[in-house]
Design a protein that fits this description.
Blueprint lengths: L4 H8 L3 H9 L6 H13 L6 H8 L4 E6 L5 H16 L3 E6 L4 H10 L7 E4 L8 H8 L3 E4 L9 E6 H14 L5 E5 L5 H16 L9 E3 L4 H14 L5 E4 L2 H13 L9 E5 L13 E4 L2 H17 L7 E5 L1 E3 L5
Parallel strand pairs: 1-2, 1-3, 3-4, 4-5, 5-11, 6-7, 6-8, 8-9, 9-10
Antiparallel strand pairs: 10-12
Helix pairs in contact: 1-2, 1-3, 5-12, 8-9, 10-11
Amino acid sequence: MAIGIKDVAMAAGVSIATVSHVLNSTRYVSDETRRKVEKAMKDLSYSPNYLAKSLKENKSNVIGLVVPDISNFFFTEIAGAIETRLREQGYNLILCNTDENLELEKQHIAHLQSYMVSGIIIAPTTREYNYRSLFKTYDYPAVFIDRRLNTPQGDSVYVDTKSVSKKAVEHLISKGHRNIAFIGALKSLSTTEDRYAGYAEALYEHGIAVRPELTGFGGAKDDSGFEICRNILENNPDVTAIFVSTSMMSIGAMRYLVDNRIAVPDKMAIIGFDDYMWTGITNPPLSTIKQPTVELGVKSADLLLKRIEDRSSDIVNEVLQAELIIRESC
């Protein structure tokens, strides 16, 4: 037989109303009484029926997170930071993976309505879609992360990756490199555009021509990084340095260099993107750009919780800074 709120009240020696106040924080309850109720809930293994509560109140303490690739360490870390922050505030998280597919993304957003989510945090698959209209249909407050849209459609948290990408390429130039390759994700993404812009600006300001044959774009996967690296280096033997603008593609590029016994940094300097444990234990340790993933997750969660409480305030746009970590690969 299912344990109910009446059983908790009886075990704690309090009224049903008191248990309800503890669960919903609707009225002051003394610390001693709260401890009794919480002990009774634990002893009875009681879990509140949040679905029934959501149906009654037409809202829930559930947030949806929609990301393009959960296998990407960057989004995994962000999801962890968001979940931790939301849990601290009494919210639960539902994670949806879109595989960079707009139609699947729209399906996930529609499906989240069945969970009566209170809001959504999303790294959008495209910058051209009218998300504002979609979220208005489902009455979702939303926060956009990582990727910019063509026009602002809601609160957002982004990282300034253009300036730090420029700094990374300038470091390579300072080491004497002039034939520097660029490996990036899909051209349609604002993050790719920003990082390529930083690369091109660094070359231009140092009197170095941007050579299209030294640039390659594709899906942000390790296999794509491997193939683009292979194509560039096999057709351009004068390349002496590589800037890779995503973490997974950095793995692929490094794998190509290792497989082909291209010594780093003696024969090829390389700077990757995103700073994770593996970047410090490669041989040699990989220079990278470190994004503030935890801060991004926490700020996006906080922005959404504020937006849930106040839909009328002006749009907020948070821009965070990344850091260039120089190790032995360049």
